[in-house]
Each structure stands twice: as structure tokens, then as C-alpha cells.
UniProtKB/TrEMBL annotation:
Family annotation (NCBIfam families): PhzF_family
Biological source species: Litoribacillus peritrichatus
Protein name from the UniProt record: PhzF family phenazine biosynthesis protein
Family assignment from sequence similarity: Belongs to the PhzF family.
Organism domain of life: Bacteria
InterPro entries for the chain: Phenazine_PhzF-like (IPR003719)
Length: 288
């Protein structure tokens, strides 16, 4: 891998100011690097995810791949929001631009808008899929695995919802500060319900929490979870169609973040729109 040929940028996503929100490294000029290179670079940056641009400047759709420190993801939220802002900053000439991003299994439409000192980016996550509801025994098992007391339970089921990644939405009414992954084989528990990750959601305050499946790293702001959470809240009647609202996250890792959500309806189908502000922090130059 020729490090000196790779370009990289550090941005903060879903952030109200610099050094807030969810940090992201965007790598571009990456057409010649391997999958292992992408994984190694992501581990070097030690953020929840990194995104790699493989296509040439000016081509559409923009081909990109997303990695955590453990694996490649077919979809993720804050890397795409950050990428749209990066494309606007590097190649944009108008106040607003549309971008099409091609991932491994999903094509995402994005809009970026220049603000004063930052860029707002929006993604259309498409129509949500409601993939299954947990029975009572399974719900109790999940609550115990997440260190959640029975008193925090919302009067609605735990449900697997997807707009690209399958999330188990765990609705609560209180006690989000107690939530944590407290068993060593939590990923196996999620696999029983065909979920990739979990999202604990306070339905009163619209605050969420999620972690890697080992429970060792808490995510700061998760756009891929906000979409399923928004769909869940809409299905439960807690938000209306075309009603803008925010999901907050990151309070417990001292990086408060705000994710803007909108459930739209197009030709009798729901669409989930997720947006946030992106602040550019630094350009990274690699040694040869």
C-alpha cells in the first residue's frame, strides 16, 4: 500500500460544532488499495467506522465502502452523511448538490447544503422493513442482557427494523443510563432474532444508545439506527408523517449528538430521511 497516494480527511458528523458529534475519517483516491488495507487504516484511526471512496472524481454514482475495526458494513449512517459533506466541499460549486452513493448492496441518494461554516447532509434511507417482533420470553432475555430493569419497559414490543442494517429496537421509558451489554455472547443473542445490532430507545425523550456487539465501544451517533428508530416511532404513533424530529445520542460518552429525522410518504410508501450537520476538522497527510 502506497500511503502517500491516499488522501484523508477528518470530519465530525451530527455535530453542532467542531469537536462534537461522531468523528469520521474519509479516505479517497483509494482505487488501488485492498480490503485488508482498508481494515488496517480503519484500525489505525480507531473510530467506530471509516469510509473509502473508490471511484474517480466526478463519476456518478460514487462507489464507496464502509469498515468498522472488525469488518465491512453494507450500510451505515454517519459515514454517508460525512461523505456527502466531503463531496460538496471538494467538488461542489452550488449551494445545494445531489449525490448518489453506491455501496455493496445499497444505493443511497444524498443531498448536501452549504451552511455558514459547515455543511448539512441528508440521506434517503428508503422504505423501512419491519422484520420481526420478539415474544415475551425473548424480550425478558434481551432486557436482562442489556442490564435494564423491568420498570424501564415501554408498553410496546421489541422489534427488528431495517433501512439497510437490521437493528433490534428496544423501547424503554426510563433508565437509559443503566443500559449496557452485560453478557459475553450478545451477538449470538442478536443472531437468534436476525438482528445485526441493538438500539436502546427512550420513547419519551427520543434518546438512543448502541454499542459494538462486545459492548466495549459505545457509538456516538448512529444514522443507520436512527432510520429504524424513526420508523419504529412512526409505527407506534409517536411521530406523524412529515413531522421533523430529532434523536439524541452520545451523552454518555461526552459527545452529545443530534440526528434529524423525517418520515415521508411517497406513492403510498414510507421513506425515512436522516440528516445532520458536518464540520470539517483536518486534512490528513500520510508519510511515504
Amino acid at each position: 500500500m502506497e500511503l502517500h497516494s491516499i488522501k484523508a480527511k477528518l470530519v465530525d458528523v451530527f455535530a453542532s460544532s467542531k469537536l462534537a458529534g461522531n468523528g469520521l475519517t474519509i479516505f479517497w483516491n483509494c482505487s488501488d488499495i485492498t480490503e485488508q488495507d482498508m481494515l488496517s487504516l480503519t484500525r489505525e484511526m480507531r473510530q467506530f467506522e471509516s469510509i473509502f471512496v473508490l471511484s474517480e472524481p466526478g463519476t456518478s454514482p460514487v462507489r464507496a465502502r464502509i469498515f468498522t475495526m472488525e469488518e465491512e458494513l453494507d450500510f451505515a449512517g454517519h459515514p454517508l452523511i460525512g461523505l456527502a459533506a466531503h463531496l460538496h466541499e471538494e467538488y461542489g460549486s452550488e449551494a445545494t448538490h445531489h449525490w448518489t452513493i453506491q455501496l455493496n448492496k445499497k444505493q443511497v441518494e444524498m443531498i448536501s447544503t452549504q451552511q455558514e461554516g459547515f455543511i448539512t447532509a441528508e440521506m434517503n434511507q428508503g422504505t423501512p422493513e419491519f422484520l420481526g417482533v420478539l415474544d415475551e420470553q425473548s424480550r425478558v432475555e434481551v432486557f436482562n442482557a442489556l442490564n435494564l430493569p423491568e420498570s424501564s419497559r415501554a408498553d410496546m414490543p421489541c422489534q427488528v427494523v431495517s433501512t439497510g442494517l437490521d437493528y433490534l429496537i428496544v423501547p424503554i421509558t426510563s433508565g437509559i443510563e443503566h443500559a449496557k451489554i452485560s453478557i459475553p455472547d450478545f451477538e449470538a443473542l442478536l443472531e437468534q432474532h436476525k438482528a445485526k445490532f441493538v438500539y436502546v430507545l427512550d420513547i419519551n425523550t427520543f434518546e438512543g444508545r448502541t454499542w459494538n456487539n462486545e459492548g466495549t465501544v459505545e457509538d456516538i451517533a448512529t444514522g443507520s439506527a436512527a432510520g429504524p428508530a424513526a420508523a419504529f416511532l412512526h409505527q407506534a404513533g409517536l411521530v406523524k408523517t412529515r413531522q421533523s424530529f430529532q434523536i439524541s445520542q452520545g451523552r454518555f460518552v461526552s459527545r452529545p449528538s443530534k440526528i434529524n429525522c423525517l418520515v415521508s410518504d411517497q406513492e403510498s410508501e414510507l421513506e425515512i430521511l436522516i440528516s445532520g450537520d458536518v464540520h470539517s476538522i483536518a486534512n490528513i497527510h500520510f508519510s511515504s
